[in-house]
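Discussion board: Methods & Data

I've been asked by a reviewer to show the raw model output for two of the constructs in my manuscript, not just the figures. I'm not sure how much to include, so I'm pasting the format here to get opinions. Each protein appears as its amino acid sequence followed by a line of discrete structure tokens. Is this the kind of thing reviewers expect to see in a supplement, or should I convert it first? Here is construct A:
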Amino acid sequence: MNLSKIVDSKVLNRMTSIEYIISEKCQNNCKYCYRTYKHNKSPIFHLKAFQIKIMTERLLAIFGKTKEEFFGPRYVEMYGGDPLIDYKNVIEILQVLSSYGPKHFTFPTNARLISELTDYDIETFLNCIPQPIYLSFSVDGDPSESNRPLSKFGKMLAYDDKIDYDRLYNIAKKYGGGFHPMLEFDVNSKWLDTVKFFFEKYNIVPYLLEIRHALSKETSINAVKELSKIRDFYEKENIEGDTLRRANTITSSICPRGLGCSALTTLHILPNGDLPFCHRLIDPPWVWGNINYSIDISKAVSYRSIYDHRNVPECIACPIRITCSGQCLGACYEYWGDPWIPIPSICDYMKLKHYVFSQKYKDWKDTANNIDIDKLQKDVYEAVGEDEVKKLIC
């Protein structure tokens, strides 16, 4: 098999999206953001359309593909900072990339800029190309909004401290958009209030994801308790099926790929042309290529097709090995200095959550057929105590 076929079958065939990191400035200074240090150091405000054009042509050249072959089966995601921080420049970038033929474009955004645009400006932005443009609002809701204070950059641009959620809801309702609050362990007592804020005020079931940093035993217990309250709240409101699945972390699933995140299915491009493992694990030696120079075939294959967290030594004997979606490798790198070693307290949390939910909810009980439930029970009893576990199940 020649190198071109190896790249096709072991690298590109797995990629469903192309992510351009177009901004390294942000209006927020989120307490849990892993990119804050990068943003504060970086001189890059926003890439220009001609830079994106050059990057894209080099991308096609280095992989030896036509635009139809490379972009036709995939969508494009714009990432930052806040990728919308200069929305007029974004329009020019979209008009450049649209000609390459991706299926659609997505923008995860802190919503600071979009909420201040007029309806005319929003319509101009969303209709500037023929492909659909999808917005994902990364906001935490009024109970937890203090987690996302303005940065010095945001204050300099004179943004309001408080987000206008009524305005955001109207934008989402009129133009389409989803909400993605982050669940920080340190404020888990507010998790249910966050869910109620979106549901009771706007009838929205937001996508939920814990920020999986190291945590204490007590915090782990309280976090599982709060997630149970959220699941119970939705069940009381008769939220089920696909609507409930939008809530993500409180529903059961099995991820067939090696990680639950998009790291293995997205090609990430940094402003300097580097192709890193993901947009969090961006330091050498976890960069597998650069569009200005070459790609390392061995690393590309290892980081796209071979890596599977279930084969990490610490995971091989784990009772939830099949059902666990793995940890954030960037977080593991920041914790250990090595991305391939899981954080033990997160392992304990994930096992506790899997066991408690498998005893309480049908979808988790069905998934539990794939795990060693006796070993899992033994592990969680040892980690947090039998009495504490039983209290969570009651």
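Construct B, same format:
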Amino acid sequence: MRWAVEYTLATGTIGLVIFTAQDIEEAEHYVTDMVTKYGHTNVYNLSPLTDGAGIDELYRLFPRLASNVNQSRVSPRGRS
């Protein structure tokens, strides 16, 4: 199953990670590793993605990040 999570780096950079995990426990473990091993802070909004999820679902699940994207430069397939 695919998952997505928002994060903030120590530098203040914010972003979105999309990853694969078997279940919620494995996804939560990955999120914990993001903080303890890779230096991310404020990791939040862990969300499962539906099969075939596209950019529209990401905009719906992560509206705060979507508002920071210049949507005119993003194609429906996620390529510019």
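Answer (T.O., handling editor elsewhere):
This is acceptable in a supplement if you add a one-line summary per construct. For B, something like: Residues 24-36 form the longest helix (13 residues).
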